[in-house]
Design a protein that fits this description.
- It contains eight helices and seven strands, in the order H-H-H-E-H-E-H-E-H-E-H-E-H-E-E.
- The longest helix has 15 residues.
- It is of the alpha/beta class and 222 residues long.
- The protein has a single domain, classed as Rossmann fold (3-Layer(aba) Sandwich), CATH 3.40.50.
- Helix 2 packs antiparallel against helix 5.
């Protein structure tokens, strides 16, 4: 199998499971026109996030890493009318693109983009005693995943679902001798998933339009 075949299969799966969506396509087009890197989740991955949040009956969602708001739209659409979503983005230019995309999607009253370093924002939420989130999606700088998970757990409750994206890195995380910061961070993240008694976790590797990668899924048990 090669990338061309993976792309073709992803295109088929999206065609068979998703309707044409002008809002989502406009969000991707706006992100591309603004020079954002093309690292958003694939459409079928976005739909998976939406379904997971709906299965959880999430009313309060946290996203760490907004980019242009593509995954934010998918997640926000899973919320009930009185639901809320907070998305954290370090780059103010990216955040502005995301806000415009959310406004175009009719979700500006539901989803809020918070600009600043994610760890600092999360620490602020903890200090403020923000109510726990039902669903947390981590998709930011990989070297910081252990810190994001630690803080996410402080903003969770039993039943909170936590998804970590891009956790395979084309298989590089299997290299215990790697000096790559992202790999070191992700291996520490996996150590936390494996040893923290509050978490029940699994991880799945994937191939598709985003290459060889994967995601983790955890439920906070206590």
């Amino acid at each position: 199998m090669d990338q061309q075949q993976w792309d073709a299969m992803d295109a088929y799966l999206c065609q068979q499971t998703q309707a044409h969506d002008e809002v989502l396509e406009a969000a991707l087009a706006a992100s591309n026109a603004s020079g954002l890197p093309p690292i958003n989740v694939a459409p079928n991955q976005g739909k998976l996030l939406n379904l997971l949040a709906r299965l959880r009956s999430a009313r309060h969602i946290l996203e760490i890493g907004t980019l242009g708001g593509y995954s934010t739209i998918w997640l926000a659409r899973a919320l009930p009318p009185d639901g809320t979503l907070l998305s954290l983005e370090a780059n103010p230019d990216y955040a502005e693109v995301a806000r415009k995309n959310l406004e175009r999607a009719g979700l500006a009253s539901v989803a809020t983009v918070v600009v600043g370093a994610a760890a600092a924002s999360l620490e602020g939420f903890v200090r403020e005693g923000m109510r726990p989130f039902d669903f947390i999606f981590i998709d930011a700088d990989k070297k910081s995943y252990p810190e994001y998970l630690r803080l996410a757990l402080s903003l969770s409750k039993p039943g909170t679902a936590i998804v970590g994206d891009n956790i395979i890195r084309r298989g590089r995380i299997a290299d215990a001798d790697s000096t790559e910061p992202d790999v070191i961070g992700l291996r520490a993240f996996f150590d936390m998933l494996a040893t923290d008694p509050r978490l029940s976790s699994t991880a799945v590797q994937t191939v598709g339009s985003k290459g060889w990668d994967g995601f983790s899924l955890s439920i906070v048990t206590s």
